[in-house]
Amino acid sequence: MNRFIAKHALTKFRQNPHFPVNTLLMMRAAVAAQMDGVHADYMDAGMQAMWEQGLKMDDPEVFVRAMNAADLDGQRLLARSQEPDVKQVLLDTTSVAVARGAFGIPTFFVGDEMFFGKERLSQIETEIVKQKECT
Predict the structure, then answer these.
(1) Which pLDDT score is estimated for 101?
(2) Which of 49, 82, 96, 110 is the most interior residue, by most CB within 10 Å?
(3) Torsion over CA of 104, 96, 59 and 38, rounded to 10 degrees?
(4) CA distance 98 to 100
(5) Do 5 and 56 belong together in one domain?
(6) Band of pLDDT at residue 134, cut at 50, 70 and 90
(7) 24-35 vs 39-51: helix crossing angle, rounded to 10
(8) Both 74 and 111 in a single domain?
(9) Number of structural domains, the chain?
(10) What would the mean pLDDT of 36-51 be, rounded to a whole number?
(11) Contact of 27 with 63, CB cutoff 8 Å
(12) Alpha-carbon span 66 to 60, nearest angstrom
């Protein structure tokens, strides 16, 4: 982890003092953010809150404040995270990932090839190029 942080100059990273946290709220809210067209901004806000600010993101009040501070509607994201359609999308997505063999994060698929771990990012790039060359 330290080599990855140094290589990518992640100067604001810090271990979250609340880790591990229950990420169900954040995962459901990610689905809601994607459905609402604010997924990229949500991911930036969530990663900063967890891995730069060290916030306890499984606490609904902390979650709402963090999202509001990032100019997102934290209360809407919290409410949407409890909606049946959002829950179902996460359940379906998780089921597909498990069926494909995913077991943690980050897991990436390039075609049918699975790569696990951030240290595999260069291998993912190689596989993408290889598969493009074959098509």
Answers:
(1) 93
(2) 49
(3) 110
(4) 5
(5) yes
(6) confident
(7) 160
(8) no
(9) 2
(10) 97
(11) no
(12) 10
